[in-house]
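hey so i finally got around to running the thing on that chain from the lab meeting. sorry it took forever, my laptop kept dying and i had to restart like 3 times. anyway pasting the input first so we r on the same page abt which one it is
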Amino acid sequence: MLERYEKSLNALERRNLLRGLVPQRGVDFASNDYLAFSELEAIRDAVRDALDDGVPVGAGASRLLRGNHEQIVALEDEAAAFFGAESCLYMGGGYMANFSLLTALPRRGDLIVYDELIHASCHEGMRAGKATCKEVAHNDADAVEDVIRAWRAGGGTGQVWIVVESLYSMDGDRAPLDDLMAVADRHDAFLIIDEAHATGVFGTGGRGLAHAYEGRDNVICLHTCGKALGCHGALICAPEVLCRYMVNRSRPFIYATAPSPLMAVAVRKALAVLQETPAYQDELQNLISLTGEYLSERCGLAASGSQIIPVVMGRDGAAMELASALQAQGFDVRGIRQPTVPAGTARLRLSLTRHVDETQIRTMIDALADAMEKHL
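ok and heres what got predicted. didnt touch it at all, straight out
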């Protein structure tokens, strides 16, 4: 009865694709806790105070039953104001939020045009939905427009949805949002922007790379709370009518237990800290600049311009060997393989956070340079 699962795992191991869970160890160059907010005392204090005031640990029900706690409502109001959106929904996580958006809003007869490097949660949402889906080359706004024009010429009459990330999670590069917004406007399309890795890191007060467009009728932004905000959950910022529609039509929203009210407290405090203490964002930007310069000097690698830096090795085995070499020297660096990245682009994903300092960055890059000489 279990043999087929064992056989599948053995096949993954032979292809250097077997995954496993390992404990946290070493200097953090792997997490998405970019601003180190997960350990910020101000957020911890806010949660302690909420517990003392009787805020429950769990919501106890879905939002449509008894789970609509006042802390969640307050968070949604504050987040909408912070990001400049008309309305906001707090979801249990970024994966659920993307899945919910793409199963609830696009309908049969609609067209979704999506970047080839969009997150797996978007793929799952599109697969479960009813709209026609077309992939385009990474960061190619002209290709997006070509697909829309061809679809219309072929008789397509439904709504068009363009789905992108503002900052891509495995390459650390930015989407051409100005060009994509122009395409969306020309074709009366919705632009869905996943700000997961930009929220807290880029934009005034950490509002993300798409802040200039939030509040528009044809823009939906997703801000995850488990990365730079150091908490948990996700915020869908959208026109009020779309949020109300999801409350009525999104099955993951309707049938899931509401997020923890304590997490809503934590996210509210994280947003307040972003506004009150821009120094955290500045510190991370300084680390990004330093890392880019030293990587170029020691390894001949181009800077990504963000806190996510790919070191592409190509072969799965080479990426994992290089990661192991750095882990052995006390650095938590992870290898990334297919299907997370396309075949032939296995890499190290270096992630910069405020958990590290300049000395640790330089030491890690020196170790990386030495290891690359041995493994290339």
